[in-house]
Amino acid sequence: MYKEYRSKARQIISKMTLKEKIGQLNQITITPYSNDMDKLKQLIKNGDIGSLILASSATAGNDPQGHVNIDVYNELQKIAVEKSRLGIPMIFGRDVIHGHRTVYPLPLASAAAFNDKLLEKCYRNIAVEALADGIRWTFSPMLDLCRDPRWGRIVEGPGEDPYVGASMARACIRGFQGDNISDPDSIVACAKHYIGYGAAEGGKDYFHSEIGDATLYNYFVPAFRAAVNEGIATVMSSFNDISGTPVTGSRKYLTDILREQLGFEGFVVSDWGAVAQLQHMGLAQSKKECAQIALNAGVDLDMCDYCYIDNLESLVEEGKVSVDTIDLAVERILCVKLAMGLFEHPYGDKKEYNKLEHLNDARELAGESMVLLKNNGVLPLNKNSKIALAGPFMKERRSLLGTWTLDGLEEETTSFYEAIVEALTYGEVFCQEMSGLFDNSVYIASKADVIVLALGESHLTTGERNSVSDISLSKSQIELINKMHTLGKKVVGVFFCGRPLALEEVEGKLDAILYAWHCGSETAHAACDILFGDTVPSGKTTVTFPRKPTHIPLYYNTTSSGQPVNGYYGENPEMNYTDSLATPLYPFGYGLSYTTFEYSDLTIDKQSLSLNALKQGEKIIVSINVSNTGNFDAKETVQLYIKDKFASLLRPLRELKAYKKVFINRNDTVKVDFELSYDDLGFYNEKGEYTVESGEFEIYVGENCLTKNKTNVNLL
Ligand code: GLC
After folding, report:
1. C-alpha distances in angstroms, 664 versus 617, 627, 634?
2. 58 alpha carbon – ligand 1 mean position (Å)
3. pLDDT digits 0-9 by tens, 124-182
4. Torsion region of 660: left, alpha or beta (phi above 0 gives left; psi -120 to 50 gives alpha)
5. Nearest-angstrom CA–CA distance, 233 and 605
6. Does the beta carbon of 94 sit less than 6 angstroms from any atom of ligand 1?
7. What is the pLDDT of residues 463-480, one digit of tens each?
8. Of the four, 60, 225, 648, 668, which is 20 to 30 A from 695 by CA?
9. 91-94 and 137-138: which strand pairing?
């Protein structure tokens, strides 16, 4: 894909000095020079800068950022194109992670929508908005599989499942990059953080990850394999080490696996300062050595730590880095710049776009991302209701946008209170006063038909460098729930969160629980759409909700224990812990609707099949009927899991292998068919070799990973 530009890239390289080549491998921010633009312009003119990252800090996810300015970028680009010796344009990158001016749900939320087409459409919107501000490259999608919700960055990724990660990768990359990164509405995407960053021990950001190769290939690689197969143009190397090998300094991970095995052709950019951090990790004794190790490992573009620009020339002179290695890195970067048409169209173009349409898409995706965890029949509410509204998030705006929101505006974000007022027709909403000791919550509850609590966590406890040791709800919110629970009215909890919180302590005190996540610009409107029944909830969580914080890690796709103690699936959970119940509060794939669905007539078109026939392309067809037996037309995400019962490498108790989100009218039944092929039934060994072994497979099809609807097939 990008290699077709190799000859053109090599022509350019043949004219470049070593210094100009090294300049192409250097990415910096504008910030150090914002007060000294002349210095920056001189560096650009010298050909010392291949890329600018439009961020003012390494943790742009939560630090307020200066707003983008396309005119400034075009002015700087003009210097690169017209004043530098070879006129090679720079590529401008920014963390346009889950939205730009219009903010979409955090990825962990949008994964729960299980709606790849809608996700792709929203990410195309993001690309259009970013381009209109001069941004040609985004450091997204984040594809880190994670089983530990203490990790602040779990919110940025797909959750605990590799199949969801691969689906998200495809949808986001198609959205960002379209059919070709040279399309006028396409931006270059970046699959990150390669690899294993989400396995940080204790959920502590930047920490050691212990991942065996087979686990790496079967859990952490699939999303990146999908990204490469979807034509991802860039990959970001991660901060972490795996079993003592820092990824950013590892030829095994960055070249042998990513390029040789997965076939990645684009370029690798390090995470911010990740090259220099090899010294703090103890792999290198100087920034110079960091540069030598990272470049030889396969990092092409050095983000913001000047290791390459300061050291590569002398490393070449000392024979520690070859010019060929540098040429290869430059070639990869130039191939992407050529492929995206940067030489023909180096300047940003302030194109108009339909913001209202983007907001409508954001509202739709948010509405499909929210997960109804409990409902004792109290929802949906009537728009004539008298509502007592309380809780710290009832007038919150910024947190609803979520972390890694650089350009969405708090002041443009509707609060939950405002959205409820908008939604009510003849109803009324009475708000809890939050001032000081005065607390009118009992009073407002006495006037109301129902109590709605706006609960959750701040965006500032999520994202980079924002891990928590305890995923419990805050004490004050638990107290509020306990108090409201005693007032004799139905209590609805709406949770505006990034990560799954441990809710066992409050679950019994709430008559309904709507997990609204941090769903971006339209969070509040979408939550009200569900609250009042304009949207029937359809979200299904892609991360397990543990009962207690102390149950972490708890994830659905684990392997079987040797004793009958697979507590996640209800097998003697009391033998997991003697002091608490080790089953999930809400399992992977769980989410309620306002209607009810009945699954029946699970069938499989063959009881057995030879491995050879499967390998030759024969499929296994699995079908099931899904009936809408309730009072609302609704969507249901039908999930198909397999269990490879016996294999040379222990296989997970359940593996999601397909899903279909179907719309079913009330009192109607639809037949849902799935096709299983050779590529669905195998696994990778520790060398990354794919294999399918004969034997019995259980196949589960249902509403979440705990479904009992089971059939079997035997591979002979
Ligand atoms: C940060 C993050 C990464 C982000 C990059 C640029 O440290 O780890 O996700 O894209 O730096 O801001």
Report:
1. 32, 7, 6
2. 6
3. 999 999 999 999 999 999 999 999 999 999 999 999 999 999 999 999 999 999 999 99
4. beta
5. 40
6. no
7. 999 999 999 999 999 999
8. 225
9. parallel
CB-ligand 1 contact for 153 (6 Å cutoff): no
- Residues in the chain, total: 716
Q: Which residue's structure tokens are 């890195």?
A: 329
Q: Choose one of 156, 236, 248, 299 to mutate for the ligand 1 pocket test, by most ligand atoms within 8 angstroms of C-beta.
A: 236
The model's pLDDT over 344-381, given as tens digits with 9 standing for 90+, comes to 999 999 999 999 999 999 999 999 999 999 999 999 99
Cis peptide preceding 518, ω within 30 of 0? no
From CA 67, how far away is CA 512, in angstroms rounded? 40
Residue 32 has a pLDDT of 73
Q: What is the DSSP string of 52-106?
A: EE--SSTTTTTS--PPP-HHHHHHHHHHHHHTSSS-PPPEEEE---SBSSSBPPP
Mutating to test ligand 1, I would choose from 247, 268, 271 the residue with most ligand atoms within 8 A of its C-beta, which is 271
Q: Is 56 in the pocket of ligand 1 (CB under 6 A)?
A: no
Indicate the DSSP class of residue 157. Answer: S
**Contact, 712 vs 619, CB < 8 A?**
no
* Residue with CA at minimum distance from ligand 1 atom 11: 272
Structure tokens at 530: 């569900």
C-alpha of residue 475 to centroid of ligand 1, in Å: 32
In eight-state DSSP terms, residue 25 is T
pLDDT at 437: 64
Is any atom of ligand 1 closer than 6 Å to the C-beta of 464? yes
C-alpha to C-alpha distance for 65 and 318, rounded to whole angstroms = 40
| DSSP string for residues in 340-357 | TTTTT--S-------HHH
**60 Cβ below 6 A of ligand 1:** yes
**Continuous H helices in 111-178:** 116-132, 162-177
Tell me if 55 CB under 6 Å of ligand 1.
Answer: yes
Q: What are phi and psi of 598, to 5 degrees?
A: -120, 130
Which tens digit of pLDDT belongs to each residue from 97-137? Answer: 999 999 999 999 999 999 999 999 999 999 999 999 999 99
Atom of ligand 1 nearest to the CA of 93: 6
- Name the pTM for this structure: 0.98
Ligand 1 geometric centre to CA of 517 (Å): 22
Which pLDDT band, with edges at 50, 70 and 90, does 434 fall under? Answer: low
Residue 436 confidence (pLDDT): 58
The response to whether residue 510 sits with its C-beta less than 6 Å from ligand 1 reads no
β-pairing, 428-431 vs 386-390, is parallel
Which tens digit of pLDDT belongs to each residue from 633-662? 999 999 999 999 999 999 999 999 999 999
- What's residue 123's pLDDT? 98
Question: Which residue, by CA, sits nearest to atom 10 of ligand 1?
Answer: 139
**Candidate from 191-200, 226-235, 444-453 with smallest mean pLDDT:** 444-453
- Give dist(CA 307, CA 129) in Å, integer: 33
206 CA distance to ligand 1 centroid (A)? 12
Tell me the two tokens of residue 319: 């024979």
- Through-space distance between the first and last CA atoms of the chain, rounded to whole angstroms: 38
Q: Quote the ligand 1 centre to 271 CA distance (angstroms).
A: 6
pLDDT confidence of residue 2? 83
